[in-house]
């Protein structure tokens, strides 16, 4: 991830070296390099801020106002090309729209770059591998708190998942839930109250699993593991309605992903019913393996059990789910559990 501009090259070079050592299991060297990268980034930003501040002091530059383009034009006339390069690098990094043609916004963003969340995230992973779990969590938290400075914004979800997993492994279920909720909070379907309410009401009205899947799609795929883990946490806490909602979104999002893949491979494929679709989907080895990896069949079984508990007067939804598991689950354990429910 080396930066092209010299002022930020050294910190990025050190980070790349730290990551290389981490991948090769040299955690002590990786930790030293990552800490050095953090300090170097802070010094680089201070130097760049000082240069911009000095370049902006002359009255002729101040008269250019706050416009990036106008300030750059004046700086070029004064042969202050290093500062022009700094500004152009940052604008290229984030895009012109991010700064809205404002030098003040450039300075503000540059100050944010004093932190190096990628390094904090790497340090957290190093400490976790070394068994220093409290230190690991504190660095995960630092990385999350500084996520605004990530070069790749979606890395924040990797940070949150690692925070959740670390918390879960050490029975810190409150922090596990908090991290998972931050992930699904950015899911546009789950956070849409009208959509969530309509989906849940469809189950309450007695819609079958076949009809639910024909009516609804949710394609924020990064949320899938979070939904299934939340469903597990809520079930264990007796929060069954919350568990059902999380499991339903996890299953629906998983099916949407599988359906998208099947349609890409069979252009003329048309959905008829959920059972036929699942048999088609798991006929592909990669989809089958993926469904096991994300614990889809566990989630399906949990969804059916929760449906029976919450809506005992109408079992059409849960019956349909059990049939899907019994017919299509690649794991015999879940097949047998579903069959036992069907013939119970």
Please provide a written account of the structure.
By secondary structure, the protein is mainly alpha-helical. The chain is built from 20 helices and no strands. The N terminus is likely disordered.
- The proportion of residues in beta strands is under 5%
Return Rg in Å.
Answer: 26 Å
Residue share in helix: over 70%
Low-confidence parts = 1-5
The overall average pLDDT, rounded, is 94
Separate helix tally: 20
Distance between the termini: 57 Å
β-strand number: 0
H and E order: HHHHHHHHHHHHHHHHHHHH
Q: Which descriptor suits the 3D outline?
A: elongated
Q: Note the main sheet.
A: none
Structural class: mainly alpha
Helix and strand topology:
Layout: H1 6-23, H2 27-55, H3 59-62, H4 68-77, H5 81-94, H6 96-99, H7 103-112, H8 117-129, H9 133-145, H10 155-169, H11 173-185, H12 193-204, H13 209-215, H14 224-236, H15 240-265, H16 274-281, H17 285-293, H18 296-310, H19 316-328, H20 332-342
Features:
344 residues; mainly alpha; elongated; single chain; disordered N terminus; 75% helix
Short description:
The chain contains 20 helices and no strands. It has helices at residues 6-23, 27-55, 59-62, 68-77, 81-94, 96-99, 103-112, 117-129, 133-145, 155-169, 173-185, 193-204, 209-215, 224-236, 240-265, 274-281, 285-293, 296-310, 316-328, 332-342.
């Amino acid at each position: 991830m080396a930066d092209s501009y010299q002022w930020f090259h050294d910190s990025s070079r050190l980070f790349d070296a730290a990551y290389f050592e981490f991948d090769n299991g040299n955690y002590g060297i990786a930790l030293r390099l990552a800490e050095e990268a953090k300090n170097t980034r802070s010094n680089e930003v201070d130097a760049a801020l000082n240069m911009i501040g000095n370049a902006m002091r002359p009255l002729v530059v101040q008269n250019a106002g706050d416009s990036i383009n106008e300030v750059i034009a004046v700086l070029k006339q004064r042969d202050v090309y290093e500062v022009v390069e700094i500004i152009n690098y940052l604008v290229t990094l984030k895009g012109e729209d991010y700064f809205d043609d404002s030098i003040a916004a450039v300075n503000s963003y540059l100050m944010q770059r004093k932190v190096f969340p990628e390094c904090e995230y790497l340090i957290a992973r190093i400490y976790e591998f070394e068994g220093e779990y409290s230190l690991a969590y504190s660095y995960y938290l630092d990385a999350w708190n500084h996520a605004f400075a990530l070069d790749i914004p979606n890395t924040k979800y990797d940070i949150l998942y690692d925070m959740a997993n670390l918390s879960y492994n050490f029975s810190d279920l409150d922090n596990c839930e908090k991290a998972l909720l931050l992930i699904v909070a950015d899911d546009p379907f789950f956070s849409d109250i009208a959509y969530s309410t309509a989906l849940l009401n469809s189950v309450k009205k007695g819609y079958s699993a076949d009809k639910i899947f024909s009516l609804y799609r949710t394609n924020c795929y990064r949320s899938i593991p979070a939904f299934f883990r939340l469903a597990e946490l809520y079930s264990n806490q007796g929060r069954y309605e919350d568990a059902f909602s999380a499991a339903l979104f996890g299953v629906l999002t998983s099916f949407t992903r599988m359906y998208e893949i099947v349609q890409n491979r069979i252009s003329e494929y048309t959905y008829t019913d959920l059972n036929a679709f699942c048999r088609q989907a798991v006929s592909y080895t990669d989809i089958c393996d993926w469904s096991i990896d994300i614990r889809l069949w566990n989630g399906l079984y949990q969804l059916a059990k929760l449906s029976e508990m919450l809506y005992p007067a109408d079992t059409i939804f849960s019956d349909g789910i059990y049939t899907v598991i019994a017919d299509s689950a690649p794991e015999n354990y879940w097949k047998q559990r579903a069959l036992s429910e069907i013939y119970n």
